[in-house]
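**User:**
Everyone, produce one record:

**Assistant:**
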Amino acid sequence: MKWAMVWVIVGSTAIADLLQSLEMKRQHVSVDDLHPSRWARLLASLALRGPLVLSVFFMAISFFAFMKLLSLADISFAVPVTATSVALETVLAKLLLKENVNALRWAGACCVACGVALLAM
């Protein structure tokens, strides 16, 4: 059960982050939009962005799955193992978002994946 929660967390976090990145690259928010007098209009426009709303939904799934994981496993297991999302997001950013991922970032993602593999043993 705890590994099922880990994969729910990792998958939903990766999906949420990809959707956020995709939407933020398509729609820019200017500094002027962040003025307190324009917050209502900004929030209304954000609520109409489908991928952004879906991203919040997946973040909520990740949060509640993490709460469940904490009831099943120690925090010393739960926090590091859910870092698998970093490695997964690096791969997905390269494949789906066509981002440029340099060698240092690949090395970091591999280190995270190796650390999670050590935890799994």
Notes: The mean pLDDT is 90. DSSP finds six helices and no strands in the chain.
